[in-house]
Amino acid sequence: MRNPLPYFAVGGLLLLNACGSGGKSALNRSNVRPCSFAIGNRYSVAETKNIAFSGITGKAATNFSVPVNIYDDLGFRHPLIFLFTPNAVDAHAPSGALVRWDWEVTENGALLANSTAFSGASPIYWGAGSFPLDTTKPTFRISPTNGAPVFAVDVDFRAIRLYSDPSFIGLTQVAAVQDGFPVGTLATLHATDDGHILLLFSNGQLVTIDSNFCKL
């Protein structure tokens, strides 16, 4: 008897062939090992290290905000609000600057950093082109009160595109992504024809495991 796939499902376990090319070999008790992935198993957290903004906006006449949820070393969520405010170009602007935005970031109303009074930060400037002139990536720190250690987050505004076209004035489509995630539990698993196991966790993380890791 030949095993058509590199796994067998028996009683909620995956029985993976341990020998042969691609995990496909004759099925017998000596080369099949049960690998159990219990639904509900935890997946460790990842502390947020980076926030990257992107999108398209016009020359906003008023301020606007973008919410971002980030995660500390224990997997707890920190809800941040980034507020962007247009202002007149100042004497510190880079050469060719025509548009200036100031920004600030708060957590539950408490100021964490801003572009005017925070070391290493500066406003966002645009010239005649649609991408920011200043490529500075400011860093600010989060001080959790839940026992998690203080952690630093880098912010990247460089992919926000600004348009002077009147059709974009007042239109803001700016969003942010971050690289942290909370604790997750195993929600589903799927074994592929080529001998891999896909584990999907409740925090959105997808883990691929080679069936060979279970071989005897």
Describe this structure in words.
With 216 residues, the protein is mostly beta strands. It contains no helices and 16 strands. It has strands at 7-10, 13-17, 32-35, 42-43, 50-58, 64-71, 77-87, 99-107, 110-114, 124-126, 139-142, 151-163, 172-178, 184-191, 196-201, 206-210. Strands 6, 7, 8, 9 and 10 form a 5-stranded antiparallel sheet that branches. A 4-stranded antiparallel sheet has the order 4-14-15-16, with no helix packed on it. The protein is globular and about 60 Å long. The two termini are 21 Å apart. The model is unreliable at 1-33 (pLDDT under 50).
Draw up the topology in text.
Blueprint: E1 7-10, E2 13-17, E3 32-35, E4 42-43, E5 50-58, E6 64-71, E7 77-87, E8 99-107, E9 110-114, E10 124-126, E11 139-142, E12 151-163, E13 172-178, E14 184-191, E15 196-201, E16 206-210
Parallel strand pairs: 5-12
Antiparallel strand pairs: 1-2, 2-3, 4-14, 5-13, 6-7, 7-8, 8-9, 8-10, 11-12, 14-15, 15-16
